[in-house]
Amino acid sequence: MTAYFRHSWLLFFSGPLICGMTLLGGAWPWIGLVVPMTVMLAGDRLLPEDVRDRKYRYPGILDALMFAQLGWTFIAATLLCWTFAPGDVLSIGAIAEHQIGLKVLVAHEQRSALSMLGVVLSVSLLTSANYFVAHELIHRRSRLAVAVGNWLLAFVGDTQFSIAHLYEHHKHVCTPDDPASARRGESLYAFALRSSYGQYIGAMKIEKARLAAQGLPAWHPANRFLRGQAMTVAIVCMMAWAFGLWAALAYAMSMAWAKLLYEAVNYIQHYGLVRVPGSAVEPRHSWDCTAMMSSAFMFNLTRHADHHARADIPFWELCTEPLSPRHTRGYFATIMLALLPSFWFRHMKEQLAFWDQHFASAGERSLVSGTKHGYD
Amino acid sequence: MIRIWKKPSSFTIEIAEIGQSLESNDKETLLQTALGAGIEFPHMCRVGSCGQCKSRLLLGRTRNLVDLSYVLGADEIREGYILPCQAIPLSDCVLSNPKAVPFPEFNFSDDEGA
């Protein structure tokens, strides 16, 4: 049973905690931000490495854990908008106070800018999880899974991911043709801009080409890129209609922050690794990670080398790759480091030098030898 | 839901160039079947985007898990080309891919250099 519980952090811990703290208001939202982050960082640090392969008799439970994220996303988004709305819209506060007995109305009345910032940051932390849950689901081939994945992405305003990730990232990973592979010497912030822009343009072009192959115009209801944008616009308009413009703006801000957090994940997964275009994708083209908490929380996204080698299997069958480079810290600590570019470059200098020497093929070595390493 | 009690149907998959018959079911893709049988089947991304596994379906029917026009042209689709990494068999199939290589049979006889 614990094998199932290990992937239930979002459903039973982060989701209820962050939504609850958002509802309470005042200083509580900051607890919703700090506690999950501390648990993740400490868990990665203190728990043993996770290299075990597990067998699951009821994988449907694991799917249900992922689908549940859509519920928490909806609740968290609604509560965020409620925080920013003038007055107690939809009587959410009154219901909480009179039906559940939580004293929230006074805090809602007297909310400060700092408290509202805490709400945006903690809700973004929760919704940034949408990316890696959706990532797993859009790789699936069941209509339900893909639809839930797309709605999860629509809530963070990034439905293009389901197109660009499959048809661009997996094909071109670690080559200049993939906007979502971080280059050497590129800071997280520069990468986030280039990657976001590149993925949007890429997804648009891919859909256009697909429709052209079917003899359809780009402006067609079958265009998945446009349909995805419509889903996001619908969500934001609903929020604006129900909670007012400020609420919708705050929600858009939280989307942007969640996007940055996920771009940080993209950033560390392939940072600085290169591949000769057209050659096979090998385990050495991804940074693996064996940190326990990151793996459990992120549905084995950490077993990334195997994911790229066998992208058609569900997350619980992924293994750690002995022949891939590794981030020795957990994902969360690695992301923290990536937020500080000068520390990041210094840390990665050694790692990449090791990769060049021991992992890279002759062709890849010549690709990196000509270029400036960025950390010199 | 009924799926749970339904036994997966079993199909025979043949790769024309190799001639070997493989057992498959309606749960796995043609690529998974071929790789599972030890055949070195050309492939790379396994998400239906790189086109490395592109093969021609000579006989049989498949269910395609992705829209093939992401990778294949209209002519190719008409000629029966599919992406085995995204194809679930619906019947016995014969597949053609000149680049597929059978599982190496180790030959310890003396003509190793040949």
Report on this structure.
The complex is a heterodimer of chains A (376) and B (114). With 376 residues, chain A is mainly α. Chain A has 17 helices and 2 strands. A two-stranded parallel ribbon of chain A has the order 1-2. The mean pLDDT of chain A is 93. Chain B is of the alpha+beta class and 114 residues long. Chain B has 2 helices and 7 strands, in the order ββαββαβββ. In chain B, strands 2-1-7-3-5 form a 5-stranded mixed β-sheet. In chain B, strands 4-6 form a two-stranded antiparallel ribbon. In chain B, a hairpin with a 5-residue loop joins strand 1 (10-15) and strand 2 (21-25). The longest helix of chain B has 7 residues, at 30-36. Chain B is globular, with a radius of gyration of 16 Å. Chains A and B meet through helix 9 and helix 10 of A and loops of B.
Unreliable parts of chain A: none
Listing every helix as H and every strand as E from the N terminus to the C terminus, the arrangement of chain B reads EEHEEHEEE
Count the E strands of chain B. Answer: 7
Low-confidence stretches of chain B: none
Strand order of the largest sheet of chain B: 2-1-7-3-5
Alpha plus pi helix count of chain B: 2
Provide mean pLDDT of chain A, rounded. 93
Instruction: State the helical fraction of chain B.
Output: 10-25%
Oligomer: heterodimer
Query: What's the main sheet of chain B like?
Result: 5 strands, mixed
What's the end-to-end separation of chain B, in Å? 55 Å
CA distance, first residue to last residue of chain A: 49 Å
Strand content of chain A: under 5%
Q: Give the count of helical stretches of chain A.
A: 17
Task: Please give the radius of gyration of chain B in angstroms.
Answer: 16 Å
